[in-house]
Amino acid sequence: MLNENSHQAQLVPLPALSDNYIWLLHRNGHAIVVDPGEAAPVEAALAESGLTLDAILLTHHHADHVGGVLALRAHTGATVYGPAGETLPVCDHRLREGDTVSLANLGITLSILDVPGHTAGHIAYHGEIDPGKPIVFCGDTLFAAGCGRLFEGTPAQMAESLGKLAALPADTLVCCAHEYTLANLRWALQVEPDNAATRARWDDSQALRARNLPTVPSTIHLELRTNPFLRTTQENVIAAAAAHSGTPASSPVAVFAHLREWKNNFKQPSR
Ligand code: ZN
Ligand code: FE
User: Fold this and answer.
1) b/e string for 153-162 if b means 16 or more Cβ within 10 A?
2) Can you identify the CATH homologous superfamily of domain 10-264?
């Protein structure tokens, strides 16, 4: 795709499986993908835009994130990066916090954060895709107005992991791996019915989904204003968590644990 903007990195969420996004990032004919739960949508996108797949980045071991990695690697020869602490179908470079991934053909270097909680070895990749354009690929750790379930971690671990993501620059593009936004916002509005930013986000997200468009990427700034899991020191969130659980929380981690439990049990209206 040679055009006057071909020097700018292009970021595309590829819908996959039932509600996953596989993030595709490309520049000047070279591409990477993050968490390919299946190969077909990636191969279609590569063919359509004439892209060479240089690398596959994995955030954690769940099948909806790694299901396509063997086929993609076999068909493209792409290098596979993934978390050091997890069992994966294939991995050429095992990463942990402090490591970096140099994507030479895209001119992008990404840094690794350990973000355990959803799984024990979950990692996130962050960096700048263009000067002044920060990004994070956070898998199933931070979602739009939500966070991943605690399958292999404690509330304290997840709260710390979310804290690392929340500390990234406010304009960081948040590239999460699922379209869960409306369901998360329905719950967030129960926690914070008077949060005008959450209400506005609900309206914006509904309009996008009505046109079958992605609600992501988000930004850290928007998550800080609307995601209850990043707002565990706000008085109204503390009060809502205490009222719902029937127990006052003595710390931000305890507030987080109440919120996670509340969200786990939140019944979405049947459609
Ligand atoms: Zn997962
Ligand atoms: Fe997932």
Assistant:
1) bebebbbbbb
2) Ribonuclease Z/Hydroxyacylglutathione hydrolase-like (3.60.15.10)
CA of 138 to the centre of ligand 1 (A): 11
List the structure tokens of 15: 């819908």
Centroid of ligand 2 to alpha carbon of 35 (angstroms) = 9
Amino acid at 85: G
pTM, entire model: 0.96
Is the alpha carbon torsion for 22, 136, 89, 180 positive or negative? Answer: negative
C-alpha 176 to ligand 2 mean position (Å): 9
Domain boundaries defined on the chain: 10-264
Asked if 174 contacts 142 with a C-beta cutoff of 8 angstroms, the reply is: yes
What the block records as the tokens of 31 is: 């591409």
Q: Which two tokens stand for residue 46?
A: 């590569």
247 CA → ligand 2 middle, Å = 31
pLDDT by position in tens, the chain (length 271): 444 455 899 999 999 999 999 999 999 999 999 999 999 999 999 999 999 999 999 999 999 999 999 999 999 999 999 999 999 999 999 999 999 999 999 999 999 999 999 999 999 999 999 999 999 999 999 999 999 999 999 999 999 999 999 999 999 999 999 999 999 999 999 999 999 999 999 999 999 999 999 999 999 999 999 999 999 999 999 999 999 999 999 999 999 999 999 999 999 887 5
Residues annotated as catalytic (active site), given as ranges: 60, 62, 64-65, 118, 140, 178
Phi, psi of 51 (to 5 degrees): -105, 150
